[in-house]
Amino acid sequence: MIHNSQIPSVVLLFFKKIITYESGSLVVIGASTGSLVSQLFKILFQGIEQRDMIMPLFLAVFTFIIYVVMFMVDFITGLRAARHEARKNQKKDYIESSKLWRSFWKFFGVVNILFILTGFCLMIAILDREWIYNIFLMSIPSVMLMVILFEFHSIGENYKRRYGYKPSYYQFFDKLTQTVENGIMKRIGNWFSDNDKRQPAGNGIKPDREEEDLPD
Prior knowledge:
The chain has six helices and no strands. The chain is mostly helical and about 220 residues long. Helix 1 packs across helix 4 and helix 3 runs parallel beside helix 5 (about 130-165).
């Protein structure tokens, strides 16, 4: 069982895995797609009264439902994969309480993040700060999409643990994230490294004249 003091670290570690997956590929995919989704919903909700208040709630509920489905599928496939590995290794117990609690607290952490983002978005809508509102509105689908895609990746890993291979749609997702990593993230890293190389290192300050030797 996970102690209360370990809960924040479990949640932070989960989001760290999401952010660092394939050198930040999910961040790029989530942010770009989240921006498109938020703009699409603005068009769909155009002309509706209290649009700025309804959109964050609708996006939060919509993405949360998808996340719950993916979480449950990941949870079930994970149990089946663990049972398969236990039978293969001739072990009776395949359910670990620590992993169950970790799954629960990850779910709880995602719910809290979604609640905070939605709450801030609604408050800023009341204050009528459009550019800040747009940032938080975009962050709702962006963050949730990153979490959903990571759950999708986890389902593929569970499938591989059980059957020894991944279906084509999981392989396509892996190729997509690797393409983003190789095409965008590495270029950004190379750009920074090239800039560092162009900057000459300091050679120190040379004295204008040599100091005279002091007598012993």
